[in-house]
Amino acid sequence: MLQALPPPDPPQQVIVVTGKALPDAAASRAYGVETFDRERLTDAPTHRLDEILKQVPGLQLFRRSDSTSGHPTSQGVTLRALGGNASSRALLVLDGVPQADPFGGWVNWPAYDPAGLAQVRVVRGGGSVANGPGALAGVIDMSSLTERGAEGSAEAGSRESLAAHVYAGASLGPGLLTIDAQGARSSGFIPVTRSTRGPIDEPSPYREGSIRARWVVPMASDVELQASGLGFLDVRNRGVPFTGNRTRGADASLRLVGTGRWQWSATGYGQWRNLRSSFASVNDDRTEAHQVALQDSVPSSGFGGSVEVRPPMGTGFELRLGGDARLTEGESRELFSFIAGDPTRRRVAGGKSGTQGLFAEGAWTTGRLTLSAGGRVDHWSISDGELVEREIATGALLRDDHYPRRSGWRPTGRAGAVLDVGSGLTLRSAAYLGWRMPTLNELFRPFRAGPDATAANPFLKPERLAGAEAGARYSKGGAALELTAFANRLSDAIANVTLGQGPGVFPGVGFVAGNFSQRRNLNSVRVRGIEGSADVTRGPWSLRLGASYTRAKVEATGPASDLDGLRPAQTPKLGLTGAIGWHEGARSASILLRRVGSQFEDDLNRLRLPGATTIDAFASWPLTRRLQLIARAENLLDATVEAGADSDGTVERATPRTLWIGLRLSDF
């Protein structure tokens, strides 16, 4: 007797954990984009993300110092000669969350481990639509690594330097948990150049570390939850007694991503930062240093969220709709006016700011042509601004400034076109409007740097950018050439404007021995430039070249009229990069050359920093199937790279030659 067989089991639905955002928008094709994949991030001559990104010609921090030697508040990032300000004019984003410091707009680079990132996309050009306001010069979009496996490395380097990294990804319930941690320390180098240093100058040690955890779990076949947490610590000394500083931070975010017929994402986040920083005054022959100020606490926070929906459209159409909001709050709690080593006054300066916006962007592709247009409108507000100063001994109120609430509306827009001509040639063009809020630091906190002092300005207006670009890309086989011309006008540009020369007493800052400045809105900064790149791959060999040339000019009237026609501070005309690499299996080697042209330290173009050329190198060699020997060299020829200059003649340098060797164990 035949017995019926049981029915077969239903097919199991395979759910893949990705940890990714929505696909890149079609509109982004109209912009110049440089992508750093995982290999470029890990097999680099440096462990620091800020230095890796400087391979993009035209990308710069406020100063040439890197994130191990420069002051944390000078780490703003920008592109296309829109520098001259410590606050970022490029929008840095990690997994959909903006990363600028809520109080000052600078970037805490030690929080980001390059080896824990899957990709970084640098999109040059203003007018970000879906990422929110702030993208005057472009967007730096970082994506976390989300893979099963493990990797660890340990390296030792010059000046008692140590660096270590650990990544692990493993299943947790139905999802994937990843943990990425990194740490580094060094006894540091003397930042002041040999010819201008004195007995008081000493090495500038640092220690830093971060840990990031991420849990990615499917909620349905086409919905994924991504939960992330980040904590970091950055401690360093600036090479003079009484100049230690420490930054602590923590982030948390939740993102839901839907990849069904209706694509959508929703993100919410919170950020917390606290800076402690001490400042010193050094006498003319650099034999003595005295403490002049102590920011004993600069607490700040940022909270926000965003929503994006991509409804199903007809073939060739893409539509993006959404909105976002960000609220920031922070204050600087500062001791100053030191007498016989003790502070006599206390200052509290800070406030709140917020933006809320809605956006829409559409793209249409027909044949070889893609057209796109998008816009957003934002409401901005600045409130609870204050600058309060008291005598410590008596509690007497010396200054009690409270500023009225201000608000307004700002538009953002961009339009682009991409034409695939054929035979590997693509033409593109774009036009855009963008804007940036002044930071709480720019609005409310005065500060000192050496003998110079800068007053705040609570009535700063948002910066506004209008720009256009056109480019061509040719790609065939293993070669790609790209050329882009652009023109930007940054209206109401915020700059530190020199208004007087000490010694003397000036409003808002008191006695000043050097230059007195105030943050002001300039009429505009006009920038025109051209960027080019070439990538060639032949077998195991690769060649990458990049160049940026810009002409930037300040347009200014009134108290800033002395700046009219000058070049903005901290903006070199020329940037060149060249890299040659060899990669065969687990063996690899590369040499990177970078040239940055001369630039001016100050707004009056009196302090010139000469151009500099550096050579870096990287090599890896397998010892076993999973174990590699790795070597890195930063500034291999030990070139002197002048990073800053004071009105008293002191010159600061960037990192000298640094050699690293270590081991990397990988199980990917």
TrEMBL record:
Residue stretches making up the TonB-dependent receptor plug domain: 32-139
Where does this polypeptide localize? Cell outer membrane
Which SUPFAM superfamilies does this one have? Porins (SSF56935)
Topology term for the membrane: Multi-pass membrane protein
Q: Which domain of life is it from?
A: Bacteria
Q: What are the record keywords, sorted? A: Cell outer membrane, Membrane, Receptor, Signal, TonB box, Transmembrane, Transmembrane beta strand, Transport
Taking every annotated instance into account, which residue ranges of this chain make up the domain TonB-dependent receptor-like beta-barrel?
241-636
**Primary site of residence:** membrane
Q: Where are the transmembrane segments?
A: none
Q: Return the PANTHER family for the record.
A: HEMOGLOBIN AND HEMOGLOBIN-HAPTOGLOBIN-BINDING PROTEIN 1-RELATED, TONB-DEPENDENT OUTER MEMBRANE RECEPTOR
Q: What family is this?
A: Belongs to the TonB-dependent receptor family.
Q: What is this protein called?
A: TonB-dependent receptor
